[in-house]
Amino acid sequence: MNPRLKSSKKWTNFPKEYSDQIQAVFNENFAQYLDDAELVIEGRIYSEEIVLRVGYHEKGRLAQANFEVSMNYSQEQQDAVSRIHNCVDAAASMMMEYFEKEGEVDFPYVWREFPFQGKKLYLQFTTENSSLEAEANRLLGVDDDSMIMEESESEDALARAEQSEELSPPRDEDEDFEESEEDHEESDDDEKGPKMFGGNKKKLH
Fold it and tell me: Across-strand partners of 124?
C-alpha cells in the first residue's frame, strides 16, 4: 500500500481496536456479499496523511479488490479520528458500488480527488494481494517494519486526537453522529459524494 503524498515516509498503524471496529462494521454491513471472502483492513497514519485500504479477497483468487482512501489531516487540529471516519465512509461507498455493479466499476487506478462531507479526499482502486505483497517485500529484503514509527520517536497524532475525541461504545442503529451547524451546511453540498454509513446504517463510533 502506497501513500499519496511524496512526503509520507514513516507511519504508525491504526490501533488494533480501531482496525477491529472497522472490520466489524464492514462485516455487518456487507455480510450478504462476503460469503467466504476475506476482508483485509490496513490503515496508516503518516505525518500529514491518513491512508485506509479495505481489501476484498475472494477465496481461490490471486487478485484482491482494494478500495483505498487518502485524506489530509492536521496534528494541530487533532482531527485524525474524524478523518478516519471520513475514510471509512468513503471506502464503504466504493465497496457498495463495486458489489451493486458486480465489479463493473470505473474507479480511478491512481489517486483522484473527490469532495466529501465538506472536505477533500482521494480515492483509488488497486488489485494487489496484501499477503503476496508482504511476501514479495520480504523476499526483496524490504523491511516495512523499519518504516514504522515507534511511539516514543514521534508525536502520535491519533493518540493526541483521542484526548478530545474518542471512539465511543456502540450505540443504537437509529442514532447518528451529532453534527455541528457548519457540518450540516457543508453536507448539503455533498449529497452526491461518496456516502455509505448514513440513515439507519450502523456507523463506526
Answer: 68
